[in-house]
Amino acid sequence: MLKYVNTGVVFQEIPDEVTLSINISRCPCHCPGCHSRYLWEDIGEPLTASSLDNIIKECRGDITCVCFMGGDAEPEYVETLAKFIHRQYPELKVGWYSGRSRVPYNINKMHFDYIKLGPYIKHLGNLQQPTTNQRFYRKVIGDSFTDVTSLFWNKP
Fold first, then answer.
1. Mean pLDDT, 10 residues at a time, the chain of 156 residues
2. What is the rounded CA–CA span in Å between residue 23 and residue 36?
3. Residues 76, 36: contact at Cβ < 8 Å?
4. Distance of alpha carbon 63 from the chain centroid
5. Are 20 and 9 in contact (CB under 8 A)?
6. Distance CA 56, CA 59 (A)
7. DSSP letter string over the chain?
8. CB-count exposure of residue 40 (10 Å: 0-12, 13-18, 19+)
9. In degrees, to the nearest 5, what angle opens at C-alpha 152 toward C-alphas 148 and 153?
10. Are 130 and 54 in contact (CB under 8 A)?
């Protein structure tokens, strides 16, 4: 079962969006140097369509995007929730921060507007570093995505 630990309205995770960030536990990636090691544990509350709906309603009007931070243990369910958001809240964009190197073959990317891929590798840095291995993609047309990682570079 997908569980979330906490949420927050953030401004840097998705460029040009006011984003409801949802931190998901049970991360299987276990990146060395991870800044959120507590998300490796099986902790938090179940993230269902109903609980997600309640979380979004609390922030509605203040946000333009919902971003799942993790969920690599259950990517199919993250996709299910992305579809739910697009159906219930067509004005909101949906992002997914994954520590995987690629989107799993059985996930349809068209249900996301933004996808961050790549494990955190400390010596390469995070998205704000030009040396990063992580990539940030934005949907441009249909299910076509473009790499916009450079939008993060040299940002405070």
1. 96 95 96 89 97 95 96 96 98 96 94 96 92 95 88 76
2. 9
3. no
4. 15
5. yes
6. 5
7. --EEEEEEEESSSSTT--EEEEEES--S---TT-S-GGGGSS-SEE--HHHHHHHHHHHTTT-SEEEEE--TT-HHHHHHHHHHHHHH-TTSEEEEE--SSS--TTS-GGG-SEEEE----GGG--TTSTT-S-EEEEEEETTEEEE-GGGGTT--
8. middle
9. 110
10. no
Give pLDDT, residue 156: 57
**Tokens of residue 45, six digits:** 């509350």
**Torsion angle (degrees, nearest 10) of CA 30, 36, 40, 45:** -150
Residue with tokens 């249909």: 142
Q: Encoding tokens for residue 84?
A: 């739910």
Contact status, residue 34 vs residue 18, Cβ threshold 8 Å: no
